[in-house]
Design the sequence.
């Protein structure tokens, strides 16, 4: 059985590794795209929007609903990538907890 001091050291080491992983994710850029890449959204791993680019073909003042839907698709695509990367990177730490 691990003693308390050993468990605390292991927990502190794990916390530093997790913080490093979170910083790496935050520094990573994820790109989400709508159908036919008409809207492209770039987000950081901490879910901050960097940019949203629109293909001129999709910008129709008479059809803002389609533009809105495609923007949502692009953002959701990028967010899904972030969630997947976060699960892969941070989920690995769950099995390393000393308790």
Sequence:
């Amino acid at each position: 059985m691990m003693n308390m001091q050993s468990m605390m050291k292991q927990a502190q080491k794990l916390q530093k590794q997790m913080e490093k992983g979170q910083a790496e994710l935050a520094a990573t850029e994820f790109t989400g795209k709508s159908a036919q890449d008409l809207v492209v959204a770039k987000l950081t791993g901490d879910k901050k929007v960097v940019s949203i680019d629109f293909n001129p073909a999709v910008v129709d003042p008479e059809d803002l609903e389609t533009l809105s839907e495609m923007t949502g698709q692009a953002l959701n695509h990028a967010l899904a990538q972030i969630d997947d990367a976060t699960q892969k990177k941070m989920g690995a730490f769950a099995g390393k907890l000393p308790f």
